[in-house]
Amino acid sequence: MSTPTMSAPTMSVPDRLIVQEVAPRDGFQIEPRFIETADKVALIDALARAGFTRIEATSFVSPKAVPALRDAAEVLARITRRPGTVYVALVPNLKGAERALAAEADELNLVMSVSETHNRANMGQTCDASLDGFARIVEAARGTRASLNATVATAFGCPFEGAQAPERVLALVERYLALGIEGVTLADTTGMANPRQVHALVTRALARVPAGRLTLHFHNTRGLGLANVLAARDAGALRFDAALGGLGGCPFAPGATGNICTEDLVNMCHEMGIGTGLDLDALIGLSRGLPALIGHDVPGQVAKAGRPCQLHAPPRAA
Ligand code: COA
Ligand code: ZN
Could you tell me where the DSSP H helices lie in 110-157? Predict the structure, then answer.
């Protein structure tokens, strides 16, 4: 008799999953070809119409470090803000936070790595310096309407240092909360996580952060992205980052490849009876438009294969 590889969801796990779309940020940041501002705006608006309640729309980082997103302020100025959608902007430092606040981002996503080596490569500073900067950002955001989320990058492994001690990851989560940052993301920056590791870390994180404020950010670098989603969900996680078409990757991490693919994740959820509130057909349509926009194929699979309900005519008898 076969035994299930994962326990059935308990009653406390809601039959829904929240997807935060990150293609406009994580996806476009690594594209060699500059995506015109008007095209970014059109995509973000179409994503909002497809039902996303959360979209990471851009990042306010150094335009020298990430020229692909040098038009961040213009993007936020030109999108049509859909009521009920939170438009998030990634920020690395106080300067980025000030720019994002001026552009009226609804939420700032403060990012640093738990790995010193990756933080230096990505953010050009030590982890302590990043944390000092976060404290200043908290002050700068006080009294504004922007909410704050902070990401632990390389939480499941660093491409330079390898495994990261869960205790260090959890200590960083506690530092974020102590600073008054309400949301936390655990990011698998280069797809090093496996489902058992994910289940264990998410279980421990949820003892500190309520499920409604915890986001998991997986990359599919080694093909484990959706398996990691199910493991995290089994541990009680509710919110996941994903990128249309499976775009994405950190420009400052060797071998980085795409995020988990939004429409593949949504298809999996809907096939399993897990609600997302998203229009899957609309997402597939948008994903099919990506190669023309960015100039190359994308890794997503459902947009190529079609949904399982889309059957084919049988071959004619000879
Ligand atoms: N937005 C715009 N410009 C910024 C900025 C920001 N958030 N932060 C710094 N700058 C500018 C500075 O004003 C300075 O400009 P100048 O050369 O014209 O004087 C220049 O960038 C260098 O500033 P410095 O403080 O010395 O930073 P740095 O060169 O050490 O770079 C970061 C540090 C964090 C700004 C840079 O590494 C970065 O933007 N990284 C983001 C990486 C990223 O997006 N990774 C993927 C997502 S996780
Ligand atoms: Zn990422």
Answer: 116-123, 127-141
